[in-house]
Design brief:
Blueprint: H1 2-23, E1 27-32, E2 35-40, H2 41-97, H3 100-113, H4 118-130, H5 134-145, H6 151-164, H7 168-181, H8 186-198, H9 202-214, H10 220-240, H11 244-257, H12 262-274, H13 278-291, H14 295-303, H15 310-323, H16 328-340, H17 344-355, H18 361-375, H19 379-394, E3 400-403, E4 409-410, E5 426-429
The protein binds zinc ion (ZN).
Length: 458
């Protein structure tokens, strides 16, 4: 609105000026270098206006031509960037898919088109590692280390190389450097903690665990579990070192924190028993048994009365059953002792009661054992045992100690998975044994070997 008013005003001014010139005719005579030019005032003004228009046009044209290279270079840069980012994305996909040749090709293209982009450098490193060129990858990571906003990516890359080469001390140093750059990195705190535990650096590991708790890098349910597993692991290490008093203190802390955590109870119970504190051991087992009945606790309970006869042992395990009368675990523990004492009826009754609930494989196997133990290998007993075993085949699996990180079943609880090195991953769970396909001795901890690119933002 204001613009159109302004335009109308300017047109009006030109018209007024033209009328004024028409109303005031006159001649102009210019004498210059022997030339005489005679014209009217109106023609002179028109000529000058034309000249100014032409000059303006020529000036604009010249500016346009002068700006051409800048325009073209900008256009070319934008086109290169677009090409570079497309190559970057396809390269990251190729790395994830494990396609070495494509990853290298896209890495070269991304690098050529995005020379200042740290992610292109990261892709080059990833592609180099995929192709087995660790040295080239290391140089790229070192390059990243020098870039203020990408230093974490560099440290993380170097760390993953150190982990793959099992260079524990270098890995710890790099993880600490990385945490200074990204103090809340969950992956990095977890990795540092696991490395410190593996190195037996308990004080540093505890400090890292506290940092992780303070920074919220652990979820509430993980926090308790990590702490209790840490106390038990440290207690076991102290015990192995012959530092019984410290081992006992740590086991007590673990059991106070989570009485339902069976490894804490068994560790404390064993240490108390070694001191000859039978009553204290009983209290520990009873407290944890009420929360989570477990065969390891039943074994300790039975071990508390080594010199009693079989009938007395049945009475003794009966006390544990009385604390958890509906529990399948308690019934199984009782039935096994009753079977040893040749109390067939008692053993069978407990197992039949278990069958009415959610009976697992062990219940049916024990029923088959009872048949054969009572009647010997007669045709009738074999038939009855066979029936129970066929039901065992369809029954739900029993829980075992198994690593949640690699899936491998274990004969006992351990803070660090002996197969994959994950900390606190082993728990009492129903597992598919086929998951454990890693060769013994080969370390593959999913937490430690997490792909770098996919989680670069963690
Ligand atoms: Zn594992």
């Amino acid at each position: 609105m204001i613009r159109s008013l302004w335009f109308a005003l300017r047109v009006a001014l030109v018209i007024v000026a033209a009328i004024w010139v028409m109303d005031h005719p006159g001649d102009v005579v210019v004498t210059w270098q022997g030339y005489i030019i005679e014209t009217s005032v109106a023609a002179l003004i028109a000529g000058m206006a034309t000249l100014m228009l032409v000059a303006t046009f020529l000036y604009d044209f010249w500016r346009g031509v002068k700006g051409m290279p800048v325009f073209f270079s900008r256009w070319l840069k934008a086109a290169r960037q677009k090409k570079g980012y497309r190559a970057l994305m396809r390269g990251l996909v190729s790395v994830s898919a494990g396609d070495v040749r494509a990853a290298e090709r896209f890495a070269r293209r991304a690098d050529a088109n995005l020379s200042d982009e740290p992610l292109a450098l990261l892709l080059t490193a990833q592609a180099a590692r995929l192709a087995g060129n660790e040295e080239k990858a290391r140089l790229c990571y070192l390059d990243l280390l020098g870039q203020p906003h990408a230093a974490f990516l560099g440290v993380r890359g170097l760390l993953s190389q150190a982990l793959a080469e099992d260079k524990l001390r270098i890995a710890v140093r790099l993880a600490r450097q990385a945490i200074k750059l990204e103090p809340r990195s969950r992956w990095m705190l977890n990795t540092l903690f696991q490395l410190e535990v593996r190195a037996g650096d308990w004080d540093k590991a505890e400090a890292t665990l506290r940092t992780a708790l303070r920074n919220g890098a652990l979820l509430p349910h993980e926090a308790d579990r990590s702490q209790v597993a840490f106390f038990v692991a440290r207690s076991q290490a102290m015990e192995a070192d012959g530092r019984h008093r410290e081992a006992l203190d740590l086991a007590t802390r673990a059991h106070d924190l989570r009485a339902d955590f069976v490894p804490a109870a068994t560790q404390l119970a064993r240490l108390l028993l070694a001191d000859g504190s039978v009553r204290a051991t009983m209290r520990v087992v009873e407290r944890s048994w009420k929360l989570s009945p477990h065969p390891d606790l039943a074994a300790i309970w039975i071990g508390l009365k080594p010199d009693v006869n079989e009938l007395e042992r049945v009475n003794w395990i009966g006390k544990l059953l009385a604390l958890q009368p509906q529990s399948v675990e308690a019934r199984l523990a009782f039935a096994r002792v009753a079977l040893s004492a040749r109390l067939w009826g008692e053993a069978r009754a407990k197992m039949l009661a278990a069958v009415e609930g959610e009976a697992s494989v062990r219940v049916f196997q024990l029923l088959a054992d009872i048949e054969l133990a009572e009647h010997g290998h007669t045709a009738q007993a074999l038939e009855a045992a066979g029936k129970w075993l066929s039901r065992a085949a369809d029954a739900p699996r029993d829980p075992v100690w198994a690593c949640s990180a690699c899936g491998a079943p274990q004969s006992s609880w351990n803070a660090v998975c002996p197969l994959c090195g994950a900390f606190g991953g082993i728990d009492w769970r129903v597992t598919d044994a086929r998951q454990a396909s890693i060769n013994p001795g080969e370390t593959h901890n999913p937490a430690l070997m997490e792909p770098l690119v996919i989680t670069a933002a963690s």
